[in-house]
Amino acid sequence: MELQLACHRKAANVGYYDVYGRMDFNRPSNTLTTGCTNVTKGRFAHPTLDRAITLREAARLQTFPDSYLFHGGYEQISAQIGNAVPVRLAEAFAVYFHELWERRKSGTHR
């Protein structure tokens, strides 16, 4: 709160709870948005450093491998990361639905 602008302190009491928020290493990340590398657009300040999270840090939170290459400019890449379903979550859904489809196909579905 000590770093929060006075004009936002009042707003926080009426629903803007994440303005200029800091991430916490001991808590799950907030949902990332297309503005996830901008501290003015949510709780996207690095947990210990005085800066927003980087594109690569945001990509890691979305479980993209470090070898994954994004294309486009900074804002385009931020949008790709913020709009993405986390890779490992998508993988878990794909595995589940593939197994369900296989069971139904073989007649062993529940």
Q: What would you say this structure looks like, in words?
A:
This protein has four helices and no strands. The chain has a single domain (6-85), classed as DNA Methylase, Chain A, domain 2. It has helices at 6-12, 55-61, 74-83, 87-106. The chain is mostly helical and 110 residues long. It is elongated and about 65 Å long. The termini are far apart. The longest helix is centred in the last third of the chain and has 20 residues, at 87-106. The mean pLDDT is 87.
CATH class: Alpha Beta
User: Percent of residues in beta strands?
Assistant: under 5%
Q: How large is the count of helical segments? A: 4
Shape: elongated
- CATH topology, by name, is DNA Methylase, Chain A, domain 2
* Poorly predicted sequence stretches spanning 5 or more consecutive residues: none
Keywords:
110 residues; mainly alpha; DNA Methylase, Chain A, domain 2
Topology:
Elements lengths: L5 H7 L42 H7 L12 H10 L3 H20 L4
Question: Would you kindly provide a brief summary of this structure?
Answer:
The chain has helices at residues 6-12, 55-61, 74-83, 87-106. The chain has 110 residues and is mainly alpha-helical.
